[in-house]
Write a structure and sequence with these properties.
The chain is mainly β and 490 residues long. It is built from one helix and 38 strands. The protein folds into two domains: 155 residues, Galactose-binding domain-like (Jelly Rolls, Sandwich), CATH 2.60.120; 305 residues, Tachylectin-2, Chain A, CATH 2.115.10.20.
Length: 490
């Protein structure tokens, strides 16, 4: 009888709570007039070595370089400046330390439309190659910055001017460097003349990291059907090089970038061959990486090793959704090799299936949103695309909160990756106010994705030894939370 009275009292108390506050959820223990009662440990963490493979929720033309100091350095298109990020993990690089290392002048040849920056360490110095114009697209050219410091976060990046073929000073973008057999080459995408009808791939020898020593040689033009979607213009661009044994692999992007058909193609040449002869390069008839498994228009990639140096990873951008145009984000995944020394990228990893973290990265702790404490009108919604079959939405009321309690062994800086969806009407950016142990932190912002089209927002957070309270509250517009990952920062 006493157990019956206990449950009656609990039921009455729940009615009072609903009457006073509307809805209070605690894990899957939800008190509401139309909710069933379920009990679950509300602060369960799941130790894991996998992640949902979005590196950054917004960005294009990603370049990641792993230096001998063990750090990953990333830069990508911001259009306004050149910023680099620094991290000991590849999967957490968006939450790494960042620094804007160069801001363009207010006017001039390299003042606007800053595209495709790449950070290279050559001859004991740091160089950044980038593309810019004066506000007039036909004037796009390639430029280079130099920093003599051993640490790219120290010293200054000095403008060394334009890097170009003096006999063919035409529209040029996406420059990258190839060093092989003691020689150095510059490879880029450009126009044959002054008209925007076709982008070809060119190669030229370099006399030093800031200058070319000979004229360009055309090594690829867009000729296959899969290279010409959206034309004119026909497009070959974003060349990147990776060498395996005796095979030089030049991976490039093809078709117009704002279409749903952007893809990666492949040229190969043999180490020791005359790379300044077009006949040394062989083009593959089919794309080597293209849309699939929910990933739209993969392109403009770079390559990097895992922390333990045992795995090869591709970092690339993709469209946020079908017909997203220039709205892109950054993804990654591990790839293998074919017997002939060419990369085997397979298909893009499915968007709703986590992949293993790069070898050598630390464990993550995953907390499901449906296991958190929530108040106001915030509630659990079942959906198959969510990481555990459920998400928390309706965090768009001033009284709505979602509170996680996360545990760490040591006080310090951690990365928090939030898997979110933003379906706000009109494609608007959304945000949540963020409180850590009762203290308000900068709001966390989310690009528009559409509902149940998940991306990750990765930020740095300061946590204390033991249990920490992380609360998400209503910000601008509306976004849903699937889960959060907590793992060591740099």
């Amino acid at each position: 009888m006493r157990y019956f009275r206990k449950w009656v009292a609990l039921f009455i108390a729940s009615i009072l709570v609903v009457t006073i506050s509307g809805v209070i959820g605690y894990g899957n223990l939800i008190f509401a007039a139309d909710s069933s009662l379920a009990i679950k440990n509300s602060f369960t963490r799941s130790p894991t070595f996998n992640f949902y493979n979005v590196l950054d929720q917004s960005g294009a033309d990603p370049w990641v370089y792993k230096h001998t100091d063990g750090y990953y350095y990333m830069t990508y298109l911001t259009n306004q400046n050149i910023t680099i990020w620094k991290s000991l993990t590849l999967s957490g690089i968006a939450g790494g330390e960042s620094k804007t290392v160069w801001t363009p002048p207010k006017s001039g040849a390299n003042s606007q439309n800053i595209w495709a920056p790449e950070l290279h360490f050559l001859d004991g110095k740091w160089y950044i190659y980038y593309t810019a114009d004066d506000g007039n697209n036909p004037n796009h050219r390639m430029f280079v910055l130099e920093n003599t410091s051993s640490d790219p976060f120290r010293g200054n990046f000095v403008d060394r001017g334009k890097i170009y073929d003096k006999k063919n000073d035409t529209w040029a973008i996406d420059g990258t460097v190839l060093t092989v057999s003691g020689k150095r080459y510059f490879i880029w995408s450009g126009w044959e003349g002054d008209n925007n009808v076709q982008q070809n791939l060119y190669i030229a020898p370099m006399s030093n990291p800031t200058s070319l020593s000979g004229s360009r040689v055309k090594i690829s033009t867009p000729t296959y059907a899969w290279e010409t979607f959206g034309s004119p213009p026909k497009v070959n661009e974003a060349p990147q090089v990776i060498i395996k044994d005796k095979t030089i692999n030049l991976v490039y992007s093809a078709s117009v970038g704002w279409t749903n058909n952007y893809a990666l193609g492949l040229l190969t040449a043999k180490v020791g061959s005359n790379l300044l002869s077009a006949s040394a390069w062989r083009k593959y008839k089919e794309p080597v990486f293209q849309s699939g498994n929910g990933v739209v228009s993969p392109g403009h990639c770079s390559f990097v090793k895992s922390p333990n140096n045992k795995e090869d990873w591709i970092v690339y951008h993709a469209a946020n959704h079908l017909s997203a145009g220039w709205n892109r984000h950054i993804r990654t995944q591990r790839f293998g090799w074919n017997r002939d020394g060419t990369p085997n990228f397979a298909s893009p990893a499915p968007v709703n299936t986590p992949i293993n973290v790069p070898g050598g990265e630390p464990q993550r702790d995953r907390y499901q949103a449906e296991d958190a404490r929530f108040t106001g009108v915030a509630k659990i919604i079942s959906h198959p695309s969510a990481s555990n079959g459920a998400k928390v939405g309706y965090i768009d009321n001033p009284q709505s909160n979602v509170e996680f309690r996360v545990q760490v062994k040591k006080r310090g800086t951690y990365n928090m990756s939030v898997r979110f969806g933003n379906g706000t009407e009109g494609g608007k950016i959304a945000s949540h106010r963020l409180y850590i142990n009762g203290k308000e932190a900068p709001a966390i912002r989310y690009v528009w994705t559409g509902w149940d089209n998940w991306l990750n927002a990765v930020i740095r957070v300061q946590l204390n030894t033991g249990t920490n309270q992380i609360r998400f509250s209503k910000g601008e517009n509306s976004a849903e939370i699937d889960c959060i990952d907590i793992f060591p920062g740099s």
